[in-house]
């Protein structure tokens, strides 16, 4: 599966990488993690901390799949607003998800700082109304979050123009967000995991998973096999290939990055920005004073067609951003596109699936804040393997039911 097109910024920025050998022998371990991106790295960290022996395999080079095309926004805000999520699952469940994501953002920020050599910064998040008829909805969302203890401001048109140079009706400014270099983050986590006893094999593709009552046998494309007690499928958007049913819809998302802006980015240097329209326009800065702008999602999941769309989609994004932020000069330095997946309700899937039974867990951190979901999912899987249940396990499971 071809997951990306063009020149993703993180691949160009982090061109040099450690190489790990392919697995060319039969192997045994306690937990096998299929995948070696940011989700797999966070899961590995949790399972190693619980005292388990962990092996990771990836059909590519570690971190070079979906992670390298991510824009790596760390937000507690789910693509589905709190009020809408509450209508689907009940307000208590919606608040559980939002509060877990808020705690996860804070935890990820602390973790990335402790690892060092990871570009990471605390940010704020500005969510603005794309159309006049969204204004009331944004005000209601702000009021609901404030009522339940979230630190937010509701900004009207004049304040948005004065403080952010943004032409929009209403904005919701959240105090908790961050941005990170996802490739650096994944690599540092994987290096730490290996120092703590994990094994990593690149260019090692899985052909099939055969579960049993006491574990699983994983067959590789090269004819070798891995016997383990547990499997975690953390293969990004390719994880759906292990299931018969379609649990999420694959789409393509587009982005570009500017050259460094010598005069700075002003208030956008400390704030990620996104809108109420779906698909949404979003923007974030980088530590070297660039802007990453993304969106223009479509239903194309054919690599050749996605490749052909990168330039035109980047130009549309540039024009859309300029219409909102007229004072920010933009020149496209690199543009790219990547596959992403979204679930009907905006929530991820973590845990076992009926097809494989309790020994095989999926880590499908789908949606606009996948890294945040991954931090929660890693703890869900650790708790399950320890015979416990994380508070979010039911809400993020394959068996969840909404209204």
TrEMBL record:
Keywords carried by this UniProt record: Oxidoreductase
GO molecular function terms listed in the Swiss-Prot or TrEMBL record: oxidoreductase activity
Any one of the GO CC terms: cytoplasm
Oxidoreductase keyword on record: yes
FAD dependent oxidoreductase domain: residues covered: 30-381
Entry-linked Pfam families: DAO
Protein name, entry field: Glycine/D-amino acid oxidase
């Amino acid at each position: 599966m071809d997951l990306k097109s063009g020149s993703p910024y993180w691949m160009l920025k982090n061109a040099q990488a450690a190489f790990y050998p392919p697995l060319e022998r039969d192997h045994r371990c306690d937990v096998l993690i299929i995948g070696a991106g940011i989700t797999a790295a966070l899961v590995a960290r949790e399972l190693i901390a619980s005292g388990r022996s962990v092996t990771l395999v990836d059909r590519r080079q570690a971190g070079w799949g979906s992670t390298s095309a991510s824009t790596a926004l760390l937000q507690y805000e789910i693509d589905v607003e709190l009020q809408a999520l509450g209508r689907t699952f009940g307000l208590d469940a919606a608040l559980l998800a939002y509060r877990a994501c808020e705690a996860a953002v804070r935890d990820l920020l602390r973790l990335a700082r402790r690892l060092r050599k990871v570009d990471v910064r605390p940010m704020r998040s500005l969510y603005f109304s794309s159309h006049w008829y969204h204004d009331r909805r944004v005000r209601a969302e702000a009021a609901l979050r404030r009522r339940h203890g979230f630190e937010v401001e509701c900004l009207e048109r004049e304040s948005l123009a004065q403080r952010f140079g943004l032409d929009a009706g209403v904005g919701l400014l959240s105090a908790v967000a961050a941005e990170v270099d996802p490739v650096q983050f994944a690599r540092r986590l994987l290096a730490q995991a290996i120092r703590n006893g994990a094994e990593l094999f690149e260019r090692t593709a899985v052909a099939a998973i055969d579960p049993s009552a006491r574990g699983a046998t994983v067959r590789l494309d090269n004819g070798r096999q891995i016997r383990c007690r547990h499997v975690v499928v953390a293969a990004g958007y390719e994880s759906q290939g292990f299931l018969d049913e379609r649990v999420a819809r694959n789409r393509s998302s587009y982005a570009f990055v500017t050259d460094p802006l010598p005069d700075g980015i002003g208030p956008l240097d400390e704030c990620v920005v996104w809108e109420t329209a779906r698909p949404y326009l979003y923007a974030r800065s980088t530590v070297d004073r660039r802007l990453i702008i993304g969106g223009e999602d479509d239903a194309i999941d054919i690599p050749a067609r996605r490749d052909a769309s990168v330039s035109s989609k980047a130009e549309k994004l540039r024009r859309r951003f300029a219409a909102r932020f007229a004072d920010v000069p933009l020149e496209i330095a690199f543009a790219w596109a990547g596959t992403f997946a979204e679930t009907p309700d905006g929530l991820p899937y973590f845990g076992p699936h009926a097809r494989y039974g309790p020994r095989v867990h999926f880590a499908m951190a789908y949606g606009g804040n996948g890294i945040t979901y991954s931090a929660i999912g890693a703890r869900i899987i650790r708790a399950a393997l320890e015979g416990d249940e994380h508070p979010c396990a039911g809400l993020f499971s394959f068996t969840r039911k909404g209204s």
